[in-house]
Amino acid sequence: MKIVLGADHGGYLLKDYIREQLEAAGHEVTDLGVNDSTSVDYPDQAAKVCEAYLSGDYTCGLLFCGTGIGISIAANKIKGIRAAHVADAFSARMAREHNNANIICLGGRTLGTELAWSIVEAYLSAEFVGDRHQRRIDKITALEEQKE
What we know:
By secondary structure, the chain is α/β, with parallel strands linked by helices. It contains 6 helices and 5 strands; from the N terminus they run E-H-E-H-E-H-E-H-E-H-H.
């Protein structure tokens, strides 16, 4: 898979760990930063990753901040993005299978590395099941169109 990822200062260590795991598993990874603890604003990082994903060059995106919450809120403001804040493998799998989430968001200060990797693996191994769930995704898209 071709995966784009990014983080703010609260999530960069977990991002770096997950990037290493993804590369070791044979995925093609683009890391849009950040790479240290210098304070940055998570909406800026969310925008970078989401815009890269929307270019059509990536299978999915991963975002990291301190809790995963702020960056998921920011990502979901971008048309075409369905970002899910996940903290367990079941939710990650459901985010893909039922919600067709194209971005998942994780907390660098709330998740250990092993749990985070199991979450990412669950998300990447799942596939959107469509059917009644597509109808719901279409309704989400319609809500997005109402904002314009």
